[in-house]
Amino acid sequence: MSAPTHTRPHPATTGRVDIRLPWWALALPTLAFVTLLLMILNPADAHAATGDPAITHLFESVRQAVLHNAP
Asked: TM spans, by residue (predicted)?
């Protein structure tokens, strides 16, 4: 008794993956990268957020303490 053999209905694939991305899948990361790059290249346009002077003073005190105690 012989077993039935099954043939492939489609020819064998060439191993190439065919994936289509939507336009925004490339546009949004590219836009984010360019924006961050421009922020790094031109830091004069970046402004620090104005916060509570007490918090600013606390962070400055901590920074000075760390720098003063650094070996």
From this structure: 21-41
What is the rounded distance in angstroms from the CA atom of residue 35 to the CA atom of residue 38? 5
pLDDT digits (tens, 9 = 90+) for 7-37: 666 666 666 777 888 988 999 999 999 998 8
Residue bearing tokens 């190439």: 16
Task: Give me 10's structure tokens.
Answer: 């489609």
**C-beta of residue 55 within 8 angstroms of C-beta of residue 63:** no
45-65: pLDDT as tens digits: 656 656 667 777 877 888 888
